[in-house]
């Protein structure tokens, strides 16, 4: 069971099959939260986590130049290669095992395309409300040693003010981690910042978390916790997004 803050744990389950969806031919996407033509008033955000899109982009296709402002944007490739360009002069090629972050701040134009012509690109596109408005736009990407995710959580994204080595900083008190766990494992995730909630996304496999069986692409939001215990019967790959629940 999870460790609590003394109040009842709040759980919000997002089964994979209940997500919004869109098919534009070159883009097939599943939407955990309301986005574009999909709107569910009960699924607008989880704390500062505003967008969690599970995208599949056809070879050579993508999003042309378009604007963003005052949003922290995180891209995690699952299969394939992303090519990024923006009006700040940044050009990035991002592969599986890498993570990209962008602080839109006062405003930025960028494009994201499938860098490969003959392979489908699969990725998570994630947006967070920032804790500071109108910051100078910034871009970052980092390659991680995924071997560190074997039966453990590897911290990928953290608050920029914390200056945590070997992570990508963002303007929010959020912590993103990934881990790959074999069958028969029991493990715990401890909340880094009191009051933060935890959104669990199953990338592959299945896991028991907080009394819930979570399977491929299921999500679970947990509030009023200090730690969560997990147990695997089979193997699992997890993305954990620890985020503030209060909107500033």
From TrEMBL:
Q: Which InterPro entries match?
A: Pirin, Pirin_N_dom, Quercetinase_C, RmlC-like_jellyroll, RmlC_Cupin_sf
**Quercetin 2,3-dioxygenase C-terminal cupin domain segment(s):** 155-243
Please give the superkingdom of this protein's source.
Bacteria
Pfam families per the record? Pirin, Pirin_C_2
Task: Give all residue intervals belonging to the Pirin N-terminal domain.
Answer: 21-128
What's this protein's family per the entry? Answer: Belongs to the pirin family.
Q: What is this protein called?
A: Pirin family protein
